[in-house]
Amino acid sequence: xxxxxxxxxxxxxxADVVRIWxxxxxxxxxxxxxxxxxxxFLGGGAAEVGVIDGAAECLVHRxxxxxxxxxxTLPASVISAVTTSHVGRxxxxxxxxxxxxxxxxxxxxAAVGLLGMFEQGFYDRFGFATGAPMLIATFDPESxxxxxxxxxxxxxxxxxxARAMGDAMRRRLPHHGRVTLEAVDLMAAEWGFIEQPFALGxxxxxxxxxxxxxxxxxxxxxxxxxxxxYETGDQLLELLRLLHELGDQxxxxxxxxxxxxxxxxxxxxxxxxxxxxxRGAHETGTKAATWWQLRILDVAVAASAxxxxxxxxxxxxxxxxxxxxxxxDAADDFAWTGTGGSYRIRIAEASSGERIxxxxxxxxxxxxxxxxxxxxxxxxxxxxTSLALTAEVSAPVSLLDQLDxxxxxxxxxxxxxx
Length: 418
Description:
By secondary structure, this protein is an alpha+beta fold. About 25% of the residues lie in helices and about 30% in strands. Strands 1, 2, 3, 4, 5, 6, 9 and 15 form an 8-stranded mixed β-sheet that branches. Strands 8-10-11-12-13-7-14 form a 7-stranded mixed β-sheet. Strands 18-17-16-19-20 form a 5-stranded mixed β-sheet.
């Protein structure tokens, strides 16, 4: 029987989605907390299902949000779940629904699409490309050199504080690449999915200002931090002082390095600590992990976000978008047809991008690339000269050098998992 596709209906489809998530071992179907977390997650965005013989066999979920580009906030959409049952595979259910999710996000005004990947390569067919690596540090919290930071006893946080913690995540200190999700019950879902959840933080009245949350499975850790939220640099330092004070019990902390500081200089004797702990239960050190991908959905809107006070850079851009062919085969007739085509790009104090009929007609240099490669270039994941080395972009050397300067940006970091 041919598959059909429709919006997710909680009353009709929840039991099927629980079955799918249990089959893929994303949840334990007998765990009531995880089931409630899934229901909270599903209510935090839009979803569609692929149906075979009357049962949902695939779900694709998207969550609206924003992403910070330098000092500008762009509308974004996160593909927050792509899950297919064991009997629904190899029937193009996930491909059809992911294509639909991106088209609907673009039609809703999202300029950027994002997702957390299970492996590099699969989502390239939708125009996604690999984001910047995240640095994940594991350290003895007692070795943090933060004695200059005053200590305040924290408050204990739990599931009842989930919505307030979510509000705090949406208020956290901006930085290039910061992803903020609009779902109000996101933290309730996250809390239910974390094994042995544990959270501490600080309040001003009913408002949580800064906190850390994660998993503390054993008495001595490691404390694996999943969420770290703060509104100021001083609050970040106060959280590190809090972790330091846990060091008399917790022997190791694992956390993604915050975007606003480098952890390594704050750790006492990190190299000796690493060699002494090697192959132990609390082995310290720093590793890099690349788990997220992005793609631009609106080139003109993304291009206008750059603020560059140097000499203006102008060029024509020819973009290919693999999603266009998939949209042509889609059952629905979407108004958004992808980003492929030619554009005139100007990088200046007031940057701009506009579609043009043909590139290179008036002597401007021309860059050719896929939408994924352009997304990596524009967000500062890699410089133009590096992307040219791997044939991801093609452009005159003089233009590549200009773009290296004009798109010199901090390493983009989402600041939360999705």
